[in-house]
Amino acid sequence: MVTLDALGLCYHCQESIMNPGLATRIIEVLEDVFVGTEPAATTASVQDLSFIKLASDGSMRQIIRVLSQGEPLCIGIVPGDNGYTARAEALSAYKLGDHLYRNSISVPKIYGYSERSGLILFEDCGNLRLYDCLIADRNRALLYYRQVVTELVALQIRGVRDFDVSWCYDTDAYDESVMVKRESNYFYRAFWLEMLGEDAVAGLADEFAALAGKTHRFFVPLLLHRDFQSRNIMLVDNAVKIIDYQAARLGPPGYDIASLLIDPYADLTDSEQQQLWELYLGKLAEHDGIDEQLVRDSYPYLAVQRNLQIIGAFAFLSMARGKPFFFTYLMPALTGLDRRLHHPEFASFVLLRSTVSAARERFAKKYTALAAQWGEKEERNANGRNR
Asked: Is residue 180 a contact partner of residue 173, using CB atoms and an 8 Å limit?
């Protein structure tokens, strides 16, 4: 049983201890120990500093907790490799993080950055994510959601001020190309074709393009996090901190709130989603220039796009990356997508509707066998780690 006391560690001292000289020293040590090395090492110590490698969810990056005499100092994040994309992602994280922090968005403070390796030192926000709080104390977690929604609106509105699209390593806007290539086709390729092993569906690409076209009508250039969900929200001293924003770009406001509300990890009820949705709209209405009806109209389409992305990502991470944790959440994501596609606005998407319904049925039939397969793989991985 996860307890909040075990997760909510105290991190008050790090800011008073951290200084540019110490940050430089930590970066040099981390580069010597972790950059360009095999990622199998999980702990290390150098003089008065010690290091613990943390789990990195779906990322290939190394995430390392830095301690001195047992007290947390910071978190070091090392790019997954020395390739162009990994280094560009790290630079985006640094530039975006600095921008958001300077605009009073609730993100971890950055203590240092190495141009040589792309390594970044962040404020250590502890171990307690909104996701963990949901597991340990759901009622308490639901109270945090109001603060999370408020911080999301701040990110979207204040974050776009003086925003420089050159900071975006991937694309500078959430456009039709992103919707088709990174979301619809991700679902189709990673889940339908590869995980389920199904045949190609003629004409489905046309519906993906039509869905992206309809969705793009609602484009509004606010700041888009693009992975705003309960595992990317830290809880620190009764406040929230937003992490993993390195894929941020310009985009419509409804996408991130959809990510939060349909998050399979959280499994929010329809009533909980509706309450948070109305709270979100109310917070947006406090700012000039926001068309509330446009945001309302955009939500079903953005939620479908996000749902397709989630399923594609979870299938890829389960199969290609061998991370069975994500497999567990495929059925909730499929169920939510199937339900949403049967709303009236999607009546013309006949092939997409039928494909998702068939995917849900076939995944349910294969679930036990696939779950056993992933369980055996995880056991082999664990045995390998313990040798």
From this structure: no
Q: What is the DSSP letter of 189?
A: I
Looking at the chain, the number of H-run helices and the number of E-run strands are 14, 10
Question: Do the beta carbons of residue 4 and residue 236 sit within 8 Å?
Answer: no
- The total number of residues shown for the chain amounts to 387
Cα-based distances in Å from 214 to 43, 211, 283, 342? 49, 5, 26, 17
**Of the candidates 113, 124, 118, 94, the residue with the CA atom closest to the CA atom of residue 23:** 113
What is the spatial distance between Cα 47 and Cα 227, in angstroms, rounded to a whole number? Answer: 38
Model pTM above 0.85: yes
Amino acid 106: pLDDT: 98
CATH superfamily of 130-376: Aminoglycoside phosphotransferase (APH), C-terminal lobe (3.90.1200.10)
d(CA 324, CA 64): 22
Tens digits of per-residue pLDDT, 94-105?
999 999 999 999
Segments making up each domain of the chain, as ranges: 10-122, 130-376
Looking at the DSSP bridge assignments, the partners of residue 53 are: 64
- Distance separating alpha carbons of residues 310 and 267, to the nearest angstrom: 14
